[in-house]
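Per-record layout

source: Lepisosteus oculatus
name: F-box/LRR-repeat protein 7
length: 491
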Amino acid sequence: MGANNGKNYGSEGKGSSSISSDVSSSTDHTPTKAPKNAATSEDSDLSMRTLSTPSPALICPPSSQACINGKDSSTSSSSVTGETIAMVHAPPTTCLPHPHIRPASRQQKEQAPIDILPDHSFIQIFSHLPTNQLCRCARVCRRWYNLAWDPRLWRTIRLTGDMVNVDRALRILTRRLCQDTPNVCLMLETVIVSGCRRLTDRGLYTIAQCCPELRRLEVSGCYNISNEAVFDIVSRCPNLEYLDVSGCSKVTCISLTREVSVKLSPLHGKQISIRYLDMTDCFVLEDEGLHTIAAHCTQLTHLYLRRCVRITDEGLRYLVIHCGAIKELSVSDCRFVSDFGLREIAKLESRLRYLSIAHCGRITDVGIRYVAKYCTKLRYLNARGCEGITDHGLEYLAKNCAKLKSLDIGKCPLVSDGGLEFLALNCFNLKRLSLKSCESITGRGLQIVAANCFDLQLLNVQDCEISVEALRFVKRHCKRCVIEHTNPAFF
């Protein structure tokens, strides 16, 4: 499969300047965090060898005009049904002029403040830009072209938006990044294309074939990708540690391709190095698929199966047998998970730090007791909507998991002030507590918590019958605490 795709892509030459990519101009967003791997201080060796290589302009407004070789020519992009066709351009010779701005004199250009910045400052600024804006900067002038394609800025590709032709964009970008090492991109470690619904298996095949050093892949919400493409990624990228396929409804399993499995048998299960796996909303995932995942991804430490509604206690049994290093696990809204499933999860013992069982209606105090007895280093528990939990379950939890920092027991109508008293007298490190819609909670229970848990930072008592005096008492004793409430008299 990979060979066939490679043959198709190879028909478009590296030096072609007529290759186009479909990218929506509405996807021009600035990320909230800078890429972790971007360098900030070292000067780069700026040679002119890259000037003959075309650069893809991922964002090219339909009305823009390009200035090539000092002559005005019409732009090579056109708007079609909300998309933008952006051609691959050679490095610019001059800055792009604005039609209503008089060109600056040579003296003014030389005195432009931005030209005074050293190269490493430019690289630091560029490191905060998403991929589409970085490609746009590469079209400004020769110097920016060289700086924008500095290898340190291309450890991450980040594309978002429904209108982005991600398959074509990835093909063009990887071809440009492979110019020094033909057919292999050794610098790219992270690809984030979350929410790009036009991503298909072809795009993932491109990444699998060209990026053997890939460590992180996020394709959440890309529901057109299938198992085959994911298998190809994990088989060809042995260093992949972080995989987010949440919302990819066609993905039902994570495994090596059949060819690789045969070659590595019987030790192939240890060849997938994934540690973080998010399969939220992969609602077709069943126990058999979870069994395969557990057998192949034995190094898992973080696993999220939110709303994988077909998972049962049997699937969790397989998981614990093969993946004994799990620290964080979420089975929220898995309605078939019961106390027997929690008994299996409890076998993770002190390694488990985070557990979410929200809206698992079959869980009662019995399951909570299993977890509390064996998972003594638990720090986070989300049991919202588990209506079978009572004060007895909270007592087991509080006495055995004294280092608990975050607890959500909202919509548990059988929890009362007695359960809060056990928490207050044992879990002094509690920082976040949600009691939303707990009908039996009163101001007395909150006062006991506030008097003992001074580090409380967030308290949710929405839809609870709590007096203004009790809320004020909490505020006095826990001054850094943010209180979420529905009492209009308290502000």
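summary: DSSP finds 18 helices and 19 strands in the chain. The CA atoms of residues 317 and 344 lie 6 Å apart.
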